[in-house]
Design goal:
The protein is built from six helices and ten strands, in the order βαββαβααβααβββββ. 28% of the residues are buried. A hairpin with a 7-residue loop joins strand 7 and strand 8. The protein is globular, with a radius of gyration of 17 Å. The strands form three sheets. It has a six-stranded mixed β-sheet. A two-stranded antiparallel sheet has the order 7-8. The chain has a two-stranded antiparallel sheet with strand order 9-10. The protein has a single domain, classed as 4-Layer Sandwich (Metallo-beta-lactamase, Chain A). The longest helix is centred in the middle third of the chain and has 10 residues. The protein is 20% helix and 29% strand. It has 167 residues and is of the alpha/beta class.
Length: 167
Amino acid sequence: MKLTFLGTGTSQGIPVVGSNHPVCLSDNPKDKRLRVSVLLQWSDLSILIDCGPDFRQQILRTDCTEINAVLLTHEHSDHTAGLDDLRPFFYRQGAIDVFANERVLKSLHKRFDYIFKKDNKYPGVLAINDHQISDETFSIEGKLLLLLIFFITPFLYLVTKLVVLLT
């Protein structure tokens, strides 16, 4: 199993644009961090946890050629704004499975309504299979001859006043 931290920065990334904070002015490469996202790869299975606005830049740094599933912890833009950049994966493999709680899925349907449109959908728009999850264990299956089933047990976590799913 390979776990790649694609980003470990804040919701604005590090350095923050226009900031005079010493970390933001630092030349240390450890102070150059993209927004939070994780790629989990195991055999033929690739699972992306969160897909923020830095996703394209992040995924180009990897050897990943397929995304089997995306898990979204919550609906903030720093965790969802990169969904359109999943299109190259969609073009190669078809609709992308996205797992999130009910609140997050409702937000996606509102903010990315063109993705979920049924009639007169613009060609080239990403297609998503949305899967509503809760705090119960669910599975994601691999796609090669070797049957691989990955079980995930999310749990709820309170960040300030927002409940997020951690996987």
